């Protein structure tokens, strides 16, 4: 990496951090800021770690890409999630079962999307293999390309 590329990366990280902290402060989110640039937000459902320079969110050992806007959404869901038993306790059982069915549908859809995303490289690899076979059939060694 050249010196110019390093400087560009540092500027991008500073800009990302500034934008993310502006969003967090606008939503009055209380957080602890650590020397390694990470931010920790304590919730009723566990701590959420946010890396504002690289736009990564970690919750319960899983890391995903997300900026402060997605973090705010996650924190909102977590706060509502902790109130879920209280809010739904007095709803009719049929309605609660309907909620569960819809949640299962959403989860199944997300799993399907994730599976398709993981399957794409496999399809690409199959196409590459097919092209290599066609080249070999025509007497061309793909390693020479």
From TrEMBL:
Q: Which InterPro entries match?
A: H-NS-like_N, Histone_HNS_N
Q: Does the keyword Chaperone apply?
A: no
Domain called DNA-binding protein H-NS-like N-terminal: residue spans:
74-145
Q: Which keywords has UniProt assigned to this entry?
A: DNA-binding
Record GO terms (molecular function) = DNA binding; protein dimerization activity
Give the matching Pfam families: Histone_HNS_N (PF22470)
State what protein this is by name: Global DNA-binding transcriptional dual regulator H-NS
What is the organism of origin for this protein?
Budvicia aquatica
């Amino acid at each position: 990496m050249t010196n110019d590329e390093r400087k560009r990366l540092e500027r991008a990280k500073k800009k990302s951090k500034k934008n993310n902290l502006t969003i967090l402060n606008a939503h009055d989110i209380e957080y602890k800021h650590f020397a390694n640039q990470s931010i920790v937000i304590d919730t009723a459902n566990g701590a959420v770690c946010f890396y504002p320079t690289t736009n990564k969110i970690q919750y319960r050992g899983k890391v995903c890409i997300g900026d402060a806007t997605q973090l705010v959404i996650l924190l909102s869901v977590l706060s509502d999630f902790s109130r879920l038993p209280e809010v739904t306790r007095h709803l009719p059982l049929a309605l609660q079962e309907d909620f569960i069915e819809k949640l299962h549908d959403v989860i199944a859809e997300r799993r399907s999307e994730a599976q398709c995303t993981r399957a794409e490289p496999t399809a690409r690899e199959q196409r590459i293999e097919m092209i290599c076979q066609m080249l070999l059939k025509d007497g061309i060694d793909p390693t020479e390309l």
